[in-house]
Amino acid sequence: MKKAIQNAExxxxxxxxxxxxxxxxxxxxxxxxxxxxGSGVVVILVYLVVIIAEFLAPYSAMSYFAECKxxxxxxxxxxxxxxxxxxxxxxxxxxxxxxVNPASLRREFAEDRGRIIxxxxxxxxxxxxxxxxxxxxxxxxxxxxxxxxxxLWGGDSMGRDVASRVIHGTRISMSIGLIGVxxxxxxxxxxxxxxxYYGGPIDHLIQxxxxxxxxxxxxxxxxxxxxxIPLSWPPLRVYFAITLxxxxxxxxxxxxxxxxxxxxxxxxxxxTAARLDGCSELRIILHHMVPSxxxxxxxxxxxxxxxxxxxxxxxxxxxxxxRPPVVSWGVLLQEAQNIRSIAACPWLLFxxxxxxVIAVLALNFLGDGLRDAADPYN
Length: 378
Known about the structure:
Blueprint: H1 2-19, H2 22-30, H3 34-51, H4 53-56, E1 77-81, E2 87-100, E3 107-130, E4 134-143, H5 162-198, H6 200-215, H7 218-227, H8 235-265, H9 269-276, H10 281-289, H11 294-317, H12 329-332, H13 339-344, H14 347-373
Helix pairs in contact: 2-14, 3-5, 3-14, 5-6, 5-8, 5-11, 5-14, 6-8, 7-8, 8-11, 9-10, 11-14
């Protein structure tokens, strides 16, 4: 009886698979990849930070407290003992007192237990404009008194909150990856599709261009293009210029993938039937060929975004990418070039660096899962 039930369940499962569409089969296979599924959640959370960065950050990227230059991170506490000996519940941080070390002549910070700075969640703090359009003052977490510093991730060399700058930098770095991939996706599908569909001299010309671009060392090529950007350009124009430079170099890999798919598909029966039915070549490409391997394109795009993010970070770290007052992870990591800053203030390197690592690893694991799920029949 038990064996009969197992056979019936197996037959029902096979029937379910037989009638399921490709996207459903992809989802069934993808959800078995636990690491990719968890990474997808992390990626969604990172892009949520991009959308509501002003709300999540306690301060704006340029707000500062002069007395908090290179201040260590403050720990968030929830319970303290009052003067009467009773426990008081509520989030708070301790302030810091400073003194100059007579031996090293360096300013040192010491936690001042007598200086309590209450903290509130979803309270009003420094005013801002959400997406630059809607005035608001609510923050996820902020000090009860906006004139008191609350630096959970420490302060930088100018007394600015590292946590707020990393959160605002997430918007720039992650959006460059996304916009750059959209541009490279357009170029890759267009040029790769033309190369694979028509072949002949056009294919040879496009492939020689791809080989030329891929033969040049990537970082010197980036630096050459980025160094040509005039210093007088405003930050927004530099942002789009860097995005175009990165996208212009990164489209070649996707074009090769698309070319190979077009070569394999252009002799398939459904393409021949569409051609005999009188469909135009543009319709055949967009409505018949591209949708047949869109799952592979999604996987390739997901794996390309980390490369874009690392490209922007590398350029900005080397000083030829985005420049202050623009805040990105690469700009924040420029502090890592100063060995003295790393030794005295390791949080200046750790928090931007760990943000890059988490985002890149999550996107890579997600891309691996999508690539495995892209061919559910394999």
